[in-house]
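Suppose a colleague, Dr. K., hands you the sequence of a protein chain of 231 amino acids and asks what its three-dimensional shape might be. Before reaching for any lab equipment, you can write down a predicted structure in token form. Begin with the sequence itself:
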Amino acid sequence: VWSFRKLKEQKLVRKSVIIVGIDPNDELQQLMVEDVIGPAQRCFAVSSKRVYIFDIYGGKMLMCLDNLHKHEITSCIFVSNLTYLISSSMSGSIKVWDESWSLKHVFVGHCAKVTQLLYYVPDNCIISASVDKTIRLWSLVFLDLMQCIQTWSMTLGLGILPDNSTLYSFGDKGVEVWEITTLHKKLGNTSSEIKSMSSTTSPRVPTRLVVTLEDKSLAVLSPVTGEVLEL
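The predicted structure, expressed as tokens, is then:
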């Protein structure tokens, strides 16, 4: 674990070395850091079928998640806002693990090695690349396939521009660039989970959204701004 310190010039200083708890035969292949700031921040390291979880500030290993897949793990991401760990394997399967590290869902569709996973924030979905010449979008809301895109080569990696407007992929034959169109965006907030929704149709007043909430109350929202007009 390294930190930057500013004296006369910025220097990289080693804070700690974590060895205890790591199998000496394991080769750590991928590192990712939890997207939070503070002493609770964790680091995840992938090795074969395992994922090690480290306390960055404490400089120690917290736990080891073993045998997450039958085949070697090829990519792994941590979605901080949902506290989901998402992993893919050589077999093409993609698994979603919740905050207690229990299996929440398995996405099946790729028929060969998944090479990379990305989290696309605007649509709350995973984008996966594979050597089966497809890129797939998986909804973390509905836990289902949103779209399958055929590519002209085996896709080895993915990237998204900072403004979330463009996805690029690269493979054994070149680079492909994709325009992203957002499927939906957040409209507004309610006091509890929405159970049903309908719209008004009166010709005398503007259209409104009427929603039934889990707490047995009703809310009326503007379909344009998302503002709660009546609760």
